[in-house]
Amino acid sequence: MNKKELRLKYKALRAELSQEAIEDKSLAIANQAVKSALWEKLYYHIFLPITEHKEVDTEFLLQVLHGKDKEVLVSKSNFETRKMIHFLMTDSTKFKKNEHNIPEPVDGIEVPSAKIDVVFVPLLAFDKKGNRVGYGKGFYDNFLAECKPEVLKIGLSFFEAEEEISDVFESDVKLDFCITPDKVYAF
Question: Does 179 count as an annotated binding residue?
Answer without folding.
Answer: no
